[in-house]
Amino acid sequence: MLPVAGLGTRFLPATKATAKEMLPVVDKPLIQYAIEEARAAGIEQFCMVTGRGKTALVEHFDIAFELEHTLRERNRTEALATLEATSVEPGSLVTVRQQVPHGLGHAIWCARAFVGDDPFAIILPDDLVLADKPCLAQLADAYLETGGNVVAVTEVPREHTNRYGILKVGKTEGRLVEVTGLVEKPAPENAPSNLSIIGRYVLLPEVITELARMERGAGNEVQLTDGMARLIGKQPFHGLLYEGRRFDCGDKIGFLEAQIAYALKRPDLAPAVQSFLKTYVR
Ligand code: G1P
Questions:
Q1: Using CA positions, which residue lies closest to atom 7 of ligand 1?
Q2: How many domains does the chain have?
Q3: What's the domain range around 62?
Q4: What pTM did the predictor assign?
Q5: Cα of 142 to ligand 1 centre, how many Å?
Q6: CA angle at residue 278 from 274 to 282, to 5 degrees?
C-alpha cells in the first residue's frame, strides 16, 4: 500500500500543482522507486491512497500509447526502455481516496477493503532506501522468520525523535529488535530510544480494527504508530535494522542528499557528478 495523499507543504512551491511523490531523484519519480521496491519484494497488487491533485501518480503507471508510438517511430529505443518499468499489470493498481487529511493511520484505514484479511506492506515513498537488497524484501524475509508485524528501523540523532515514530526496545537478536512500545514523534527528552521507524512496514490486518477507533494522537491526527502500538503484546512485533542507507526525501536536505547518492550510483553520471562535486568542496 502506498499512502500518497499528503499535501507536500514542505516542498512548496514545487508541489503546488504537482504531487510530491512525482518529484524525481535523478530521473525517476519517488513513486516509481516505491513501486519497483514493492515488486522486488514479490508484491503484485498495489493500492495508492490518494487525494485531490494526485492524478499524475496513476497516469505514471498507465500505458502512454501516443508517447510509445512516437518513440518507436523515431527509433528512440533507449527512451522507450525507460518506460518499461512504468506500466503495471492490468488491474493490479487500485486507488482509494482519503477525502480529508486526518493522518497516516486514517489513510491506511481508508484502504481497509484492499487489506481484507491478509498481511500487507506499506511503503511511504518519501523514504528512499539505497541498499543491495531492497529494504522491503529484507522486511519480507524477516516477516517469514518472525511472523507478526515488522517495521524497518534506523537510529536517528536524539534531536530528531520528534520527526518520527520511535521504538521502545526489548530483546535484540542480530538485526531484529523486539518492539515493546511505540510513540509517535516524541520530544527528545521523552523518547524511549533513538530508534525510528522508517516508511517500510509489514503489518497484520488487525491494525485496521485499531485504526477504526479513530483516536487522535500527535498533531491531532490518527496515527498509524498508535494503531500499531495497540497490537504490541497481542501479536509478535519486531523492528528490523535493515541494511542500507535511508534518505528522508520529505526533508529538503535528505532529498538533496538522495540526488547525489543516487547519481553517484549511476555509471553514466557518476564521473561527471564526482568531478563537479569537487568544485564545491573546500
Ligand atoms: C510517518 C510516520 C512516522 C514514521 C515516518 C517515517 O511520519 O507517522 O512514524 O517514522 O513516517 O518517514 P511523517 O513523515 O508522515 O510525518
A1: 164
A2: 1
A3: 2-265
A4: 0.95
A5: 21
A6: 150
